[in-house]
């Protein structure tokens, strides 16, 4: 699906992933973990997933957790550290920002068919991100990872930041776009494969160069 979205900026465009990148779910993981009988301290995807998956091919409870995380869990989720500063920097420099997210309209029927996109837009509005720093039409959701990467290729941002290695490593990912792997608290580190590892503060410094 193609979108009629204004994506050309005076200087360039920055693309950002949403879940576990712009949105920090640490408190959501903590709160929801208690409902699944997990001990306190599970505040990351890796920690919770390892506890809920009984085997590599048995992730029903993990999927159930995600259905709650990306709906009710947004009530306590917070903007990631440094993201607002990054958005301010982009505005000052005339760099447009788009959010490109792999997010289906609802979770599976077996987990309640919860609406996933409306709560996400409500969260962005609540925290003044979109509308605000980013026009609503510059936030797009895609049913599959392949469609997400196709959208990145269509927009052709100068940089795209995502927390998932799998997205940045897809064969369809456009070679002209600088791949940035989001890691909280990380300075800008260039890997041999061309991927940069960074947090939002480090990315803001690169945008300002």
What is the overall number of helices?
A: 9
Could you give a short account of the major beta sheet? 7 strands, mixed
H-E order: EEHHHEHEHHEHEHEEEH
Give the DSSP E fraction (strand runs of 2 or more residues): 15-25%
Q: What is the CA–CA distance across the termini?
A: 34 Å
Kindly provide the radius of gyration, computed on alpha-carbon positions and rounded to a whole number of angstroms. Answer: 17 Å
Number of strands: 9
Quote the average pLDDT.
90
Helix fraction by DSSP (H/I, runs of at least 4): 25-40%
Low-confidence stretches: 1-10
Please list the strands of the largest sheet in the order they lie side by side: 5-4-1-6-7-9-8
| Basic shape | globular
Structural class of the helix and strand makeup? alpha/beta
Question: What do these coordinates show?
Answer:
Helix 4 packs parallel to helix 9 (200-208). A seven-stranded mixed β-sheet has the order 5-4-1-6-7-9-8, with helices on both faces. The protein has helices at residues 26-35, 45-52, 60-69, 83-93, 117-126, 129-133, 145-155, 165-168, 200-208, and strands at residues 12-16, 23-24, 78-79, 95-102, 139-142, 159-162, 178-182, 189-190, 196-198. Mean pLDDT is 90; it is low at 1-10. By secondary structure, the chain is α/β, with parallel strands linked by helices. The chain has nine helices and nine strands.
